[in-house]
Amino acid sequence: MACVACQKPLTLEIEQESEDEDMQMEGVVGSSSSAAQPNTVPDDIELGCGCHFHWQCLLDAYQTPTCPSCSTPLTSPSSPKIPCTLHNEGGLQRNLDILPLLTEESYLRTHPEALKPRAFLTFCASNDVTSILHMLEDESSSTEDAIPLGSPARTALLRSQDPLGDHRSGLHAAVQGGAREVVWLLLLLASELELSRFPQEVLLEADALGVQRESQEGLVDIRRLRDARGRSAEDLAVEVGGVWHGWAGTGRLTI
């Protein structure tokens, strides 16, 4: 069976590094610890219409919720989903809804400027302080993606809201992910929460990382941002619970 888009087998060839350390130690000519060995894994998405695609071929061809090959509608008013059977290196998954992924990929193709904010929100949710700082720092004046301190681009990134993810902000994403370090970082960089309200260890860590609060005059306090359901970060924290126990009513997450 082949992909209906490219007519190639429904597999994906990936490279793996072989470990020939013993051969190297014995001085065998031509041995290499990084010799690339081809490995073939399944790469097959079967849509409800019966058409099979490689994942990348489907992404490249998809525009509307119809099959790019036979034009069969893939959703219905009563079921806004695109169920499929996915077979890849992770195994076989049946009745998997791929509409959210296809919607996201289609949006990012037409709105490439959304790639950086999407990455930023992902880092916020995963408590990846290092990656967030790398996005915000002016690492090189010649780097196209660098965001100088205090620049409009940096300000916009800190307060960006996801049009595909319930219009959530970085603060919402961090709360949802239980990322306390990121919450404190965002409050330091994008809110007017008094510095006296920050734990001393947070301020010491920020100082060690070279992170300083800039003037917030004329800027939207990140605590004021609401998601598509009208929730503040504090509202979400109440729903999530866990590490946010005791935060409600303190003014840390909403004003």
Structure description:
It is a single chain. This protein has 10 helices and 6 strands; from the N terminus they run E-H-E-E-E-H-E-E-H-H-H-H-H-H-H-H. The protein is α+β, with helices and mostly antiparallel strands. The protein is elongated. Helix 4 packs parallel to helix 7 and helix 7 runs antiparallel to helix 8. A hairpin with a 4-residue loop joins strand 3 (44-47) and strand 4 (52-53). Mean pLDDT is 87; it is low at 138-143. A 4-stranded antiparallel beta sheet has the order 4-3-5-6. A two-stranded antiparallel ribbon has the order 1-2.
Describe this structure in a few short sentences.
The protein is of the alpha+beta class.
Features:
two-stranded antiparallel sheet; 4-stranded antiparallel β-sheet; elongated; alpha+beta
Helical content (DSSP H or I, runs of 4+): 25-40%
Question: How are the strands of the biggest sheet laid out side by side?
Answer: 4-3-5-6
Proportion in β-strands: 5-15%
Overall 3D form: elongated
Radius of gyration: 24 Å
- DSSP summary, beta strand count: 6
- The N- to C-terminal Cα distance equals 58 Å
Instruction: Report the total helices.
Output: 10
Mean pLDDT: 87
Structural class: alpha+beta
Largest sheet data: 4 strands, antiparallel
- Give me the strand/helix succession: EHEEEHEEHHHHHHHH
